[in-house]
Batch of 3 targets.
Target 1
Amino acid sequence: MSSSQPSVSQPSVSIVVPVRNEADNIAPLIAEIGAALDGRWAYEIIYVNDGSTDATGERLAAIMAQRDNLRQLRHARSGGQSAAVRSGVRAARGAIVATLDGDGQNNPAFLPDLIAAVEKGAGRVGLAAGQRVGRKDTGFKKFQSRVANGVRNSILKDGTRDTGCGLKAFRREVFLMMPYFDGLHRFLPALVRREGYDIAYVDVIDRPRHSGVSNYGFFDRLWIGIMDLAGVWWLIRRKKPTPDVTEVNA
C-alpha cells in the first residue's frame, strides 16, 4: 500500500460513490477526488459496486492496491442507487459523508465546498445539496427534471431547485435518521427539513459523462416516484415536534 495516501483508520470525511458497470470511469474519477481532497481532510473513498457485470470490480481492486483510503463494497445483485448510497453511508467511518455519481458527470472539484458548508453549519446544517447549472443532459431529460422538481417542490415545499444532483454532503447521523425506501436520495432535502435541520445549497457545474450509458433511468422509476412523493408528503404531515429531553438525576 502506498504510504502517500491518507489512512482509512480515522477519516473525518467519507466519499460514497454508487456505481454499476462504470469500469472506464473508475480511475479518472478517483484521481479527481484525490486532487480535490488530498491535504484538506483525512478521508476515505467508498465505492459501492451495485452488482456490476463488467470490469468495475477488477478496476477498483487494482487501484485499492495503490490507495489505502479506497474501499469497495459489492452488492451481489443490483439494488439501485438508493440502496447503494445507503450501504456506503452505513459502512462510512467519517462523521460527514459526501456522495457523487460514478459516471463522471459530477465534478469532484465541488466536494470541498459541500463539505465545508456542512462543517460551517456547526450542527445546524444537516445537508449541503449541489444544484446543477449548465446541465449537459439532453433537452428531453432536462425537461423531465424540471417537471419532476417543480411537482415535488410544489407538494413538499422543500425549497430545493434540484434534488437529482448526486453531489451532496451531509452528517452521517442525520442520514441514518431517515426512513429508508428506494428513491430516498431524491427526497433528502424534504426529509432533512422534517428533522429540523437547515440545508445549504452549492451551485455546481454539470459535465458530460466520461463514457458508457446511464444505468439509473427515468421511466423505470416514474410511477414509483409518484408513489414515493405521496409517501414523503404523508411522513411530513405526520411529523410531531421532537420532544426536548433532559435526564433527571437522583
Target 2
Amino acid sequence: MIRVLVAEDQSAVRAGLVLILRSAPDIEVVGEAGDGEQAVALARELRPDLVLMDVQMPRLDGVSATRQVVGEGLADVLVLTTFDLDEYVFGALRAGAAGFLLKNTDAKGLIEAVRTVARGEGVVAPAVTRRLIAEFAAKPARRGAADPAVLDALTRREREVLSCLGEGLSNADVAVRLQMAEATVKTHVSRLLAKLELRSRVQAAVLAQELGI
C-alpha cells in the first residue's frame, strides 16, 4: 500500500482528491491537512510514503512545508500546481519535491502520478517536466548558476542519463534512447543523484539544463 497524506487548504478540493485516491486499491489516505504547518506535523506523526502538497496554503506555504518534509526525510512530496506562479513551483523544486502535478489532472492521472513517485521515478508526466524545465532554464539569473566541475564525479554513462533527464525523459524513454534496460537506467539515476547530492530527478533535469548538457 502507498500511504498518502493530502495537504490542500480548500476543503472541497481536498475531499475530491481523497475520494479519487481512495478509489485505488493500492493507495491509502492516512491523513488530511488544511495548511502547511499541519502538513508537516502530520508527516512527522504519520510518516506517509508521499505527501500530496498544494503550493498555496495558509500559515505555512507548500514550498516551505516541502522543504521541511524533505529535509527531515519524512516522505516524498508530490506538488500540486496550476503553473500560474512560477516562483512557487521553482521554489518547491529547489526544496526537493519529487514531482509536479497540474491541478486539472484527471482521476487516472492523479493515481498514476502517485504511483510513479512512489516507485521512486519522480517524473509525473514528461510533458509537465519539460515545461517546467524550459521555463526554469529560460530565466537568465539561473543560467550558468551551476559549476560544471560537479560533473567530474559522473561516469560517461551517468552523464548521458543526466542529459536525457534534462530533456524530461522518463526511465522508459531513457532506456530506449540509450539502449539499456529500464532497471539499469533507474540504477544510474540513483547513483548520479547521490553523487550530485540532489533530492530528485527533476532537480537533476534542471541542473542538466543549467549546464547545457
Target 3
Amino acid sequence: MVGVALSDCGRVDDATAYALHAQAARRALADAGLDRTVVDGFASAGLGTLAPVEVAEYLGVRPTWVDSTSVGGSTWEVMAAHAADAIAAGHANAVLLVYGSTARADVRAGRRTGTLSFGAGGPLQFEAPYGHTLIAKYAMAARRHMIEYGTTVEQLARVAVQARANAALNPEAMFRTPVTVDDVLSGPLIADPFTKLHCCLRSDGGAAVLLAAEEYARDCRTAPVWVLGTGEHVSHATLSGWPDFTVSPAAVSGRLAFGRAGVRPADIDFAEIYDAFTYMTLVTLEDLGFCAKGEGGAFVGEDRLLVRGGQLPVNTDGGGLSAQHPGMRGLFLLVEAVRQLRGEAGERQVRRRDGGLPRLGVASGTGGWFCSSGTVVLGRE
C-alpha cells in the first residue's frame, strides 16, 4: 500500500458521492507521489448501476483489471486481498480502491431515508415481516452473547467510551467530546440492549487506497506498507441460517490472514475493527484470537483499547462509533492502519513499549449482519 487518503468527511453538504470518490483518489495518488496514468487496476462498490465502470470513467482511469465485489462493510478488505493477489500474479501493477458516500447529507436533504433493512426479497422475505431491522439483528446477537457468557451492557458501553477517547485525539473525527458509561447507558434505546451511543454515527465521506507492485514502491513519496496476509469468509444470509450468534465470520478470515502472514494475534500492535455497533468490536476481538471466546466483555472492560495506555489500541481514529461512518466503512480501516504504520497519526499515534512505531497491524471488516468478513494483516518492512 503506497498511497492512502480520506476525502472531506463528517458533514459535507455541498459535494456529490462521485466528487468524494474523486477527492479521495486524487489525495491518495498525491500521497503516493504517482500519477493516475499508472493505475491499471480499479476496485469500487456501492455507487452507480455499474460501480467500477461509472466511477472509473468519472475519475478518468481506464483499468485492465477491475473488481466490484460487494459484501457490505468487509468489501474493502476483500478487495485489498484480491488486488494484492492480482499484483502478485502480474495481472495489474497499480490498483486503486476508492469509496465515497453522502449518506448523511442525503438523509438531511430528504433524498433517502434511514436504512432499516437491506430489503425483503430472497431469503430476507422470511425475516423482514417480523421486524428484523438491521440494528435489531446486531442487538439480538449481542443479547445472545450476554446470555451465553454473562457479558454486560456496561462492558459494551466501555467500547463506545474508549472509541470516543481515541477520537478525541483525532482532529478529523466527527465527534470528539468524551463520554462516560453513564452517558451511553442513559441514551435513547434504539434496539435492546443498544442505546444511541452503542450505534455508529451517520456521516459523509470517502477514502482511497493505492496498492502497487514493488517496482513502483521504490519511486513513491512515502515508504510502503506491506500486505502480509489476508483472509475472507461468508457465513449466512439470514439469522435463521447463522449457526451461532456469538461467533462472527472473522473467526475464519482472521485465522486465514494470520496464518498466511506467519504471525500470531499476540504479535499485533494495534487493530482496526469494523464497529457499526459496540458488540461488533467485542466479538471480533474474540474471533481474531485476542482473547478467548466469552472473555470479550472483560477484555474491553479494562481500557485495553485506548491509544494512550491501552495494551491493544483498537480503532485508533475513533472508529465508526465516533470518527466517521458514511456507509461501507471498511476502506477507512485500511487508511488508518497505513497511517499508523507510517507514523503519521499525530496525537493518536500508537507506540510500542520501547517507544518505536508499530510494526504490525490488522484491519478486519464485517459486512451485512456478520454475514461476511475480510481481514488484512499489514506490516512495515
